[in-house]
Specification:
The structure holds two protein chains of two kinds. By secondary structure, chain A is an all-alpha fold. In chain A, 77% of the residues lie in helices and 0% in strands. Chain A has 13 helices and no strands. Chain A is globular. In chain A, 48% of the residues are buried. Chain B is mainly α. Chain B has a single domain, classed as MetI-like fold (Orthogonal Bundle), CATH 1.10.3720.10. In chain B, 78% of the residues lie in helices and 1% in strands. Chain B is built from twelve helices and two strands. Chain B has helices at residues 2-43, 46-51, 65-96, 99-114, 117-139, 150-174, 178-186, 191-202, 204-220, 223-228, 246-253, 261-296, and strands at residues 55-56, 61-62. A two-stranded antiparallel ribbon of chain B has the order 1-2. In chain B, a hairpin with a 4-residue loop joins strand 1 (55-56) and strand 2. The chains are: A mainly alpha, B mainly alpha. Chains A and B meet through helix 1, helix 4, helix 5, helix 6 and helix 7 of A and helix 1, helix 3, helix 4, helix 5 and helix 6 of B.
């Protein structure tokens, strides 16, 4: 009896520890949101959303906003996600058993997993090295390249995971009707993997828009909306860093507003991803 | 007919080329980092780079010892904090939580994984820096800490690693065949005993690979760390003193790269170290998982 009590005691102690851990995890998320939303909402204004920044903005002498950073972030994230998607879907479809021997495709999967785990600053320094080597300066172009490289493994692997789940019989029926491998991949497999594609692309977009380390070294900074691919540009994450490095606490508090906008964008992407994934699941043949 | 075959050929070859490109990209990055760092390695010996602690880019001294020690301490502490918490949370989600609670917690963790690192950093800047300065450091008898410290960076890193470890652990717990659990429960083991003796053992490799991947994330995190660590390249004097990590030193020094070519090479060398360490940890994680897959068929 005594032994049983001891065992039940152990069970209860660990149960309490577990609930404590869950509270820590959930609490830290709530803390992050509360801090950013409370601080951000109090320092944000309509002017900040509709005006571009200026030196006076960084010195805290009123005026100016983050429009150029919002536009810059979108100009960086959307083209890079589109490119990463085009590259990613080709790779994911090609990794099927129909095209490649499993041992080769597993090696490529390992490469992709390693690339996924590579810190984003590596992509930044890789692109910066190339940029300096060919004698160019910081620009939107290299930011897009760095983000594309960053997003390729994310998008590819999540498309790949859903392509792997496709029942073989479905592909076989396409083949038996006389379609080629390429036609099957493009017409049948792509449609069947749609939820994975949607989730992967939006996951990549979220990572791309929030990543600072890769673009810090490649896009530079500017107070204007970029006119061409070769212009430097501001972006939301780098603007937060720049504002925070100013000594004036009033200027620093503007960083909270920028982070607030960034967090809202990331949240919207995550909600859209959830709804779209659910919607696209409807068309799948089980 | 010919047209379709031609399209099949062209389409397949195009996909092949792109697939080769991605494997090639991996080696291209490695190659670029190595060629970029040859300049500094030829100039200063590797031992000097790794075991000297003076980092003075302007006078051409690039010793990384302080930074390496800082990185090890920061990553170590953040793992010590986050491993038990994440593991217990994962156990709770899989084994204990009622369905409703589970449905609430999972999206929470997904959102936590998607929060940009600069937002984590800002949050640490607002909350943890004053907390460490006014409460935690004085509690440990360190009265003149600025709050920008190694410990602050470890705290925020441990939060950033939660979602990775939790989701990977949950995945590997779910993969265990239910018969194993049932067998243990049917001979009278309590739930926790089942977790401890059956689940941890069966999914051991999955847990280890989750730790390795979490470690990789903490090791390479740049922005959040550079915002709160204080950015001093000396050997850290205490947990509540300022420091620097391998990743954050790149973010802090890149601005002078154009004027100091030797600094560029030194930073590329730091990038190479990061790349190789992350590579080793990822491959280890993969090997551990592959062994487990062979054993448990998941």
């Amino acid at each position: 009896m005594e032994l049983l009590n001891k065992r039940i005691l152990e069970e209860n102690i660990f149960k309490i520890l577990m609930i404590f851990s869950v509270l820590v995890v959930v609490g830290s998320l709530v803390l992050i949101f509360a801090v950013i939303i409370l601080n951000g909402a109090s320092s944000i204004s309509i002017d900040m959303l509709t005006q571009t920044s200026s030196p006076r903005f960084y010195l805290g002498k009123g005026g100016g906003g983050m429009l150029n950073a919002i536009v810059g972030s979108l100009l960086l994230a959307f083209p890079s996600t589109a490119m990463a998607f085009l590259i990613g879907i080709c790779i994911a479809l090609y990794l099927q058993r129909d095209f490649l021997h499993p041992s080769i495709s597993n090696f490529i999967r390992l490469c992709l997993d390693i690339l996924w785990g590579v810190p984003s600053i590596i992509y930044g320094i890789f692109c910066m090295t190339i940029m300096i080597a060919i004698g160019m300066s910081t620009s939107l172009l290299f930011g897009i390249i760095a983000l594309t490289l960053l997003e390729i493994p994310i998008i590819t692997r999540s498309i790949d995971e859903s392509v792997k789940m496709i029942p073989l019989s479905l592909k076989e029926s396409a083949y038996s009707l006389g379609s080629t491998k390429f036609e099957t991949a493009i017409k049948v497999v792509r449609r069947q993997a749609l939820p994975g594609i949607v989730a992967g692309v939006l996951l990549g977009l979220g990572r791309g828009i929030g990543d600072a380390a890769s673009i810090l070294l490649t896009v530079g900074d500017s107070n204007f909306i970029p006119n061409s691919l070769y212009d430097s540009t501001a972006a939301l994450p780098t603007m937060i860093l720049n504002l925070l490095s100013m000594p004036d606490p009033n200027v620093q508090s503007k960083a909270y507003a920028v982070a607030f906008v960034l967090l809202i964008i990331v949240l919207i992407i995550s909600i859209v991803s959830r709804t779209l994934t659910k919607k696209s699941t409807k068309y799948i043949i089980k | 007919m010919e047209n379709r075959k031609l399209r099949d050929l062209i389409g397949s070859k195009l996909m092949l080329v792109i697939t080769i490109f991605i494997a090639f990209l991996f080696f291209l990055i490695l190659f670029t980092l190595i060629t970029g760092s040859i300049y500094i390695v030829g100039d200063q010996s590797i031992t000097e780079l790794l075991f000297s602690s003076t980092w003075k880019p302007r006078s051409g001294e690039f010793g990384l010892l302080g930074v390496i020690i800082g990185t090890i301490i920061v990553t170590g502490i953040s793992m010590i904090i986050s491993v038990p918490i994440s593991l217990l949370t994962a156990v709770y989600i899989v084994e204990y939580a009622p369905k409703k609670v589970r449905q609430i917690i999972r999206p929470f963790i997904d959102v936590l994984a998607g929060v940009p690192s600069v937002v984590y950093g800002l949050c640490a800047f607002i909350v943890f820096v004053p907390l460490v300065r006014d409460v935690i450091a004085p509690f440990f008898g360190e009265l003149n800490s600025s709050g920008f410290s190694i410990f602050t960076a470890s705290l925020i890193l441990s939060i950033m690693v939660f979602p990775i470890i939790i989701s990977l652990c949950v995945e590997s717990f779910n993969a265990i065949p239910i018969e194993l659990k049932e067998a243990s429960l049917s001979v009278g083991a309590t739930k926790w005993e089942t977790v401890k003796k059956v689940i941890f053992r069966a999914s051991g490799p999955g847990i280890i690979s989750a730790f390795l991947l979490g470690f990789g994330r903490a090791f390479g995190e740049t922005i959040a760390v550079s915002m709160v660590i204080g950015n001093q390249e000396k050997i850290p004097s205490s947990l509540f003193g300022q420091g620097q990590t391998l990743a954050s030193i790149i973010a802090q020094n890149y601005i002078d790269v154009m004027s100091l070519p030797r600094l560029e090479s030194a930073l590329i060398f730091v990038g190479l170290i990061l790349f190789i360490v992350v590579l080793i940890f990822n491959v280890l994680g993969y090997l551990v998982l592959r062994r487990a897959r062979g054993k448990w068929n998941y």
